[in-house]
């Protein structure tokens, strides 16, 4: 199991448009990735490809998240998705 | 309502015979040609307990669900690509919900024989999975609970995709079209794109239905309560005459010419000078009905001489708690700002009946139109009205608009007196009432002693005078402000106001803020009855001014007398229209 730590950069948090961008990216990787808050149990982590899960997570700007995946393509997928979280999608 | 096609085809027939005529009630004038898009009916719930149907397997059902979900995602994604702003964001997020693992995994699980209740069809599985996700979202509350409608919409779309039916909601088309529906719900009307829909036709619904109100606000030619139109085939070219209330399938050369002539005159009618005078120079101010600051800016740009009805509900709707005084001050101030030095009549909160508010009204009333609504909510929930009046007074102090305030659904002189005292306590100088309940019209000379003005809400006054629900298509003929009984109530109000004015030594004005004022022919009658201001959707200002400008006050009085004496609504309308040749010239 590989992990990446990423801090939410978008001003509106991982909501609305940033959440849609992230979910689309997660679905495109074709790898099963989970997302959760840093410090919370691994089994509470949610499916990163689910916009509903992401909305329910409701991560605000500055919150630290953990992405986890394993198997073929996991490292690349995690790198891509960590970058999406650390980009401010609300900047014009 | 007659349907004059003896050779009317049954459902599924390829085309309607040339010249087929459908007759309904015209609510917004305009003559247009266009292609029909039918509004699909509500999606039927797939039956429970059928198991996986014969010819299907667990694997094939799983695949069908995934393919249907992907198809819905692609459709919504394509629409998002052509949308902009907030609509684009909502559509993109909704598109992703269609293939959301939370939804699809739960649906696939419900296909297997091992789940509670046994195996389900693909349609039933996605239906129940959607309900489950909706329940989860609802329990999370706040922003997530607001997404419940989105997930239920996605679910309905996937079920339609599985069944090979058209998607629910307003049809999507690249090209402009004429929308035909049984009737539109408020939620549908919010989704309607006026760039794409060029006219509205409904088989049900009355002249006061949501469809009609929306059509007036958007200036879309519309015919309601036209039986049979929902059977006109998709894609057929039709002609709609929103003044005559007729729809012609397979239009001929005459209709084509009429539509071209309308397109030309519509540009002249759109213009209103900003001061409405009759042929003899009498000034009858034309005001606008608005709901938001954005409406007010548009109304001012259209030349409105003030606001005759500011619906304050916009500030309260879709909320589970009362807005703060500060929020209200800002919202009302936005409207006042658009009309510096001009009259703005604010109607206090009109909740109840078709505009329920969770913190004010009771949804369990057996008869909401006769229930605790309008001013009456003050009895059960005192405080809300006082705070609103305080907010109106604070906003008025910040702007130069001449602010008048009126209460909706006042029935007695005691209510009028109490409202006037609340206005005085808030420092609001000009209190008034709406005349919607027939008792207020009958007792106008007494009721108007307590306040400074009255404004007749013809939509509700008609529904109560005729005991006919505004929303019911079959009662459309009763629900007609041309009914001589309604005109007599308007006359009683004007006469009562004059008597109360004489007693008090100051004039008491009576205006109209119902949709009746937007009917140019009826506007002439109302002015002839002694109504001093007319308030309407901004779109109606041009046509009403054009027709009022063609008559003198003396002629208007004669026409009002003719309408009052008519034995029926149809006879009143016919007599007045026959005396106003301008209407036919302008296609109104």
UniProtKB/TrEMBL annotation, chain A:
Keyword check for Cytoplasm: yes
CDD domains given in the database record: PTS-HPr_like
N-terminal signal peptide: none
Keywords of this entry: Cytoplasm, Phosphotransferase system
PROSITE patterns to which the protein is assigned, alphabetical: PTS_HPR_DOM, PTS_HPR_HIS
Keyword Transport in record: no
Organism: Arthrobacter yangruifuii
InterPro entries per the UniProt record, alphabetical: HPr, HPr-like, HPr-like_sf, PTS_HPr_His_P_site
Protein name according to UniProt: Phosphocarrier protein HPr
Gene Ontology cellular component annotations, sorted alphabetically: cytoplasm
Compartments, as annotated in UniProt: Cytoplasm
